[in-house]
Design a protein that fits this description.
- With 112 residues, this protein is of the alpha+beta class.
- It is 47% helix and 19% strand.
- It contains 5 helices and 4 strands, in the order βαβαβαααβ.
- It has a 4-stranded mixed β-sheet with strand order 1-4-2-3, sandwiched between helices.
């Protein structure tokens, strides 16, 4: 497993997402370093408005268009940018494809 400066969580409902965000905040993460990835724009809009966290919609029309013409999966490309192992990329991709929600928080320890 590659070293990462992130904590990951998975949720499947809006209520579970809210609880995970609150848990991350209680562990010292600020709303500015909590990111939420999901295909459901309604859930993202609700959590962004309520919690003011960073949201990222996967499989937007633009992403689908890009994937169609480049042959590359835009969601996998974004997950790759998080310095994950191939196994983790596939796991999170499958979660997102099955209406799951992936949360991650950037650690703000001294150094990088």
């Amino acid at each position: 497993m590659k070293p990462t400066n992130r904590t990951f969580e998975v949720a499947y409902t809006e209520q579970e997402l809210e609880a995970k965000v609150e848990a991350m905040k209680s562990h010292g993460h600020t709303k500015n370093n909590i990111h939420v990835l999901a295909e459901n724009a309604d859930i993202l809009n609700a959590i962004e408005t309520q919690e003011e966290v960073q949201t990222h919609e996967t499989e937007t029309v633009t992403d689908k268009f890009k994937s169609m013409f480049t042959g590359k999966d835009a969601v996998r490309e974004e997950l790759t940018k998080l310095n994950l192992t191939q196994t983790e990329i596939e796991e999170f991709h499958d979660i997102l494809e099955n209406e799951g929600i992936v949360l991650y928080a950037e650690h703000q320890h001294g150094g990088q």
